[in-house]
Design goal:
This protein is mainly α and 229 residues long. 52% of the residues lie in helices and 9% in strands. One of its GO terms (cellular component) is membrane.
């Protein structure tokens, strides 16, 4: 009989409990059994076939951390996208939120801490480190050119793509980009205000500002490596 790993993945909220129980949202968890080969393929494809990364972090480092019980990972499935409590059961989010899904600190402190599998921990670690690395790399290697380009758009000459297109297409005026930006921001503010999203206005602005700051680093990364964080 072939050995199989159990991989869990969270699925969207699908049901509500009876009103007498507070009309709380239930979370359904879908479980899928994968063979070892399928489990490896799942990790490789999830990282756009970055084989060196998969080999080092998931075939070499991850088993070491798992079998040394780092972060109590040995008590949990090796490959899983679910969250768990201290008993190894699926984390019951209903116990730490009210009927409006507001986070309750006192209930959270009474409930066991949340744990995630070692593979999931490495995914988070790699994603956060990748974003930080892209920003630092852009600052160190391209920071001077970016700043000079902001001060003088003609610094460093024209981009090859601009030279190829400028004789066939007119430049888009800045006021047009400004109007589109204002429209998108306005629609975003209207959306979070009209529908119940629990997202404050300032939170939406912070998110937009953060994404705007990553446009240049992400563009440089994808333009030079055909990869993205």
């Amino acid at each position: 009989m072939a050995i199989k790993y159990l991989i869990t993945s969270d699925v969207e909220v699908v049901a509500r409990v009876p009103e007498e129980e507070g009309d709380m949202l239930l979370q359904r968890t879908e479980r899928t059994e994968l063979t070892p080969t399928e489990a490896l393929t799942w990790n490789v494809e999830g990282h756009e076939r970055n084989y060196p990364e998969v080999a080092f972090f998931y075939l070499f480092l991850s088993p070491i951390l798992y079998y040394t019980n780092i972060w109590y990972s040995a008590y949990l499935p090796f490959l899983s996208l679910s969250t768990f409590d201290s008993t190894g059961d699926i984390y019951n989010i209903i116990r730490v939120v009210d009927k409006n899904l507001n986070f309750l600190v006192d209930k959270y402190e009474q409930y066991p801490p949340m744990y995630i599998s070692m593979s999931f921990s490495l995914i988070f670690a790699l994603l956060f480190s990748a974003v930080a690395a892209v920003i630092v790399h852009t600052y160190l290697y391209n920071g001077a050119d970016i700043w000079a380009k902001f001060k003088d758009p003609r610094h460093g000459g024209e981009d090859i793509h601009k030279r190829l297109m400028k004789n066939k297409h007119m430049d888009v005026p800045n006021w047009w980009s400004g109007i589109l930006t204002a429209m998108v921001l306005g629609l975003g503010v209207f959306t979070i205000g009209y529908w119940v999203s629990e997202l404050p206005f300032w939170g939406f602005i912070v998110v937009c500002f953060g994404m705007a700051c990553l446009i240049v680093p992400e563009g440089i990364l994808e333009g030079t490596t055909n990869q993205r964080t």
